[in-house]
Amino acid sequence: MRCFRVASLTLVIATYGTAAFARHKNENLNYVSPKLATGEAAIHSVCVVPGEMQLTKVGMKGKEGMEKESEQWADALQGIVEAHLKAAEVEVVSSAISPDQLDTNPDAQQLVLEVQKSYDNVATQLEKHPKDIKKHRFSLGDEVAILPCSAKSDALVFFHAEGDVLTNGKKAFSLLVKTAPEEANLRLSFVDSKSGDVLTLVRIQREGERFEKNPEKAYGKALDREFKKIKIGEFTASAKKKKQPKAS
Amino acid sequence: MHHSTKPEFLFPRATSLLFRSAISYVLLCLSVPLWAGAQTEFQFGKPDLNLLEEANQIDQIYARKGLIITDPDVTGYVESVGKKLLANQRPLEGVTFKFRVIRDPILNAYALPNGSVYVTSGLIARLQNEAQLAGVLSHEITHVTDRHGYLRNRDARKKMVAIDIFEGATAAGGAWAQGAVNASTYAMSAAQSAALLKQELIGISIEATGSLGQTVMAASIVGYGREQEREADDSGIGRMVAAGYDPHAIPQALALLDEHLEYEPVITFYRDHPKITDRVAETTKLADAHPTTGFATFSESDYLAKFAPVIVYNIRADLSSRRERTALARAKRLLAWKPDDLSYQTLMADCYRSLGAKSAEPDDEELTRHGKAEDRKLYFQRTETEEQRTLRSKPEGEAQLKSNEQIAEQTYLSVIGKDASEYNAYLGLGFLYEEQDRRADAALQYQQFLKIAPPENYQRLRIQRRLENLQRSLPAAPASAAAPTATAVQQ
User: Which of A2, A7, B191, B401 is deepest in the core (most CB within 10 A)?
Assistant: First the structure.
């Protein structure tokens, strides 16, 4: 009996300890390919390829979709990302395909599906081993060039986000038992719009309800910091040279 | 005064009682199916109405993302087969039956609780005739009429509460209980469960729904459970007979699906072996109970005539999804039907070119349990480029590559020889020559493509760029002598 009690207590402590240790914190990460880091490629203009952005409601009886909230969140996030790209002096050319085009032009839909499939083919390995971007490992191939906006941009931005929102019941329950927190992941993959090479991946992880209620506050500054780190727009070497005053 | 040397009891007695109660409740929930089977009148509760709403939203997502094939001939045909099966169906609350083909190379079919029945383009490309299609649709119709989606959802919700209680009582049981629920509710392997929860490569159509209707979408991959699937097979067969279809088409269709050309990231209910062999045996027994004559016959030729555009689309989708062997098998099927069709010959050549150093059929080692496990591991570890590089590094891979490239080249040249306006053949030949580093020859083919392809062809920009890169890399002298002809290659 004594052994059972000690073992149970050890198990409980280990579980809480592990859960606390493994608990996601706010985190910003970026991975940059040598092509971008050395200036061989430079990103001054991008085209955003619509990706999946999903919020999931997590309650006591399992998960449910949040379709309307997801749409609003997706629109807000896209707006925020584009605004901060522009602030970094990256031109945002027209999105790969507008919602109106999606409704009326089946061929345009198929082009986007094709390009997304190319992304999906490397996405599993990319997400598992993002550091391999530094080894120039990932490329979608020049199929990406079939999108009309590829001609006018330096890079395509594949944009994905997912977030778990806890119900009030689940939040109350989490006071008693440590459960997975409310958190959201935002991922931006910049892909050379001519060759399809993956140039950089930015990951921003946020905890707490702010990511849904105030995404600008949750992501705005982080995006500015990451765009500076990955050296796009005004932060590229060539842009910096232009800005330096000429010696008199 | 006597002091006990035993430490005090670490958990109050109430917690111990709660712990034991939680275990009992969880075991009860996991063991007892909490559905009542087919119901004559279904009473909607709030969770059911939420699920119905989610099903409607899933329909909208598919439409918005262009995932539904809208060709009126295809849609009309599938609808007509569905309508025959519903001839004696009384109206059901919350159900409007719709039958659609969805753009997804994975072999699957599923029904949402609102009556939307989806068959993937991958499954359409595999079936042989209308009767087999009717078999698939009638099975899915039963899931709707018997409200299996709602019952499954209710069951899953109750089990989630059990998990939460267990988690609360033990603070450590959550992960175990979750796994146990997954294993029992969805009857899938640990790997499949993990993949499903992470939404890894579960198919374009299912991934598109995100977190909507998770219970129903999960069931669409792995099935509803033994009893409900048996019910669907049984009722489905009855429905087929009433509509004049030979019920033996169901086991025939299932046998077709037992195909092992390449690794599948997720095994759907329609592909799960050995369940398929069990289902073939069971459905054959059920079908044998019905008369064997008096049914209409349906030819494969008529079926292909209706669905050829879907099959062509799906071949391209297979090529984009690392399913080159499947693509080749389907292309050969179209060619067997219409051997003189130049577009199908070009498609077959594209498949051989895409195979690269891979063989057209799996070898014996790949079909063993170890071989399949190894395939799975490597599929997730390596990109397609890396896979090809590894294959080419071996002598047998190099030999296979040469063989595949030779077939592709001969076929492209043969097509061009018969019809010089087949621009896709020039395109394929250009890709092939570029892969072989025959830059001058590749440039010639790209030039031909750009000359004759329609102005709106979406590949123009990409090929223009390739041509410019090639021309930059070529020496200043004019391009080499005329491109090889079919005769020259044969010599």
Answer: B401
Domains, in order of start, for chain A: 23-232 (3.30.160)
Cβ contacts of B321 on chain A, cutoff 8 Å:
117, 120-121
Spans of chain A below 50 pLDDT? 20-24, 248
What digits encode the pLDDT tens for the residues B434-458? 999 999 999 999 999 999 999 988 8
What's the pTM?
0.83
Prediction ipTM score? 0.80
Where are chain B's structural domains?
44-298, 310-490
- All residues of chain B having their beta carbon less than 8 Å from the beta carbon of residue A12 are 170-172
Residue range B310-490 forms a domain whose CATH class is mainly alpha
When CB atoms are compared, the residue of B172, B209, B459 closest to A146 is B459
| Closest CA relative to residue A227, chosen from A33, A34, A86 | A86
CB-nearest to B164 from A60, A109, A148 is A60
Peptide bond into B455 cis (omega under 30): no
pLDDT for residue A153:
94
Nearest neighbour of A15 by CB, restricted to B172, B211, B213: B172
Q: How many CA atoms lie within 13 A of B144 on its CB side?
A: 30
Contact at 8 Å (CB) between B272 and B221? no
Distance from CA of A56 to the nearest CA of B (A): 6
User: H/E element holding B119?
Assistant: strand B116-120
Q: Which of A2, A109, A176 sits opposite B66 (nearest CB)?
A: A109
Tell me how close the Cα of A44 comes to any Cα of chain B, in angstroms.
20
For residue B176, list chain A residues with Cβ-Cβ distance below 8 A.
Answer: none
Each residue's pLDDT tens digit, B334-354: 999 999 999 999 999 999 999
